Amino acid sequence: MKTYTIAAIPGDGIGAEVVSAGVEVLQALAKRDGGFKLTVDHFDWGGDYYKKHGTMMPENGRDLIKLHDAILFGSAGHPDIPDHITLWGLRLAICQPFDQYANVRPTRILPGITSPLRNVHGPELDWMIVRENSEGEYAGVGGRVHRGLPLEVATDVSILTRAGVERIMRFAFKLAQSRPRKLLTVVTKSNAQRHAMVMWDEIASEIAVEFNDVTWDKMLVDAMTMRMVMKPESIDTVVATNLHADVLSDLAAALAGSVGIAPTANLNPERTFPSMFEPIHGSAFDITGKGIANPIGTFWSAVMLLDHLGEAKAAKRLMTAIERTTADKRFHTPDLGGTAKTTDVTAAVIETIHGANI
Ligand code: ATP
Predict the structure, then answer these.
(1) What is the pLDDT of residues 144-167, one digit of tens each?
(2) pTM of the model
(3) DSSP label at 143?
(4) Does ligand 1 have an atom closer than 6 angstroms to the CB of 340?
(5) Of 91, 92, 281, which is best to mutate to test ligand 1, by the most ligand atoms within 8 angstroms of its C-beta?
(6) Where in the chain do CATH 3.40.718.10 domains reside?
């Protein structure tokens, strides 16, 4: 029997609540499937760790997880610590050195969930947003001098490399090709940003030649926000830079009903390092400890994790269990207008997993 090792990093805020629910669900699936086992190692990295040690994770942190088959991540953020420290100290400190350059964010309106978009119920909104996850606006290049003086200068330089753009375009075209509609929208801002974004567009055209069966178009990011709201059915797969996709995917999550549902995979497609799976939401300190965090985003991320491990049958079973659970309004947490607790949703998903007809 195959045994996979999973590194669980709950992080901060509701991260702990949703990751422990995610691990419970994954173990239930392994038990139900019978064909694989999971060994889960927990790492207490994050804001509290920072307060004790002055870093978000130990110096050899990446060495401790680099041989795991996958990482299940919660959230990084702490009310007393600046966001750029928590983000760069943990999430980006894993994503970038592990070269998880393709961030994939599926968006669908799950059964039983109401989109804030009028007359949009399900089939009209089924997207895959691919976010370039290793460079662009979040390359980390820049600096700050003359702090506090009137002459203070600060820069964040967006970097796009040919190699980086080629690999994310190829990944996005391949993903679009694998989906029934074979449709890709390349998001850009090459009207205002006339260097790197123009290269981005040119490389998209070059890579498109390799994928003759994929229909693709190009859209300015500002126009894309309107299209997502006004013509959601015209969109299928989307590729965008780090910042653009960061913003668009939060909008996508809201249009699908709640940020608590949306999953994401930070993939190293060549598998030279483990990939990382996490809900897209943050640490949500406003609801931490209340037991009402929606765990669906983490469960859906676990579906992506299982798919990545090659456990397609278990992944499908979990997705079905998630959809049956969201279809029943008794299991809606307050972000979806219900009164269910995290534990109610988790128990319902696990019960469905163990059911006879799944
Ligand atoms: P961070 O700075 O870590 O990104 P944040 O609080 O700015 O955190 P989110 O954590 O994404 O951003 O929260 C935004 C809003 O969505 C909050 O009101 C939060 O309570 C709500 N929210 C986020 N995730 C969930 C969830 N899983 N279940 C229910 N509500 C959620």
Answers:
(1) 999 999 999 999 999 999 999 999
(2) 0.94
(3) E
(4) no
(5) 281
(6) 1-101+262-358, 115-143+151-256
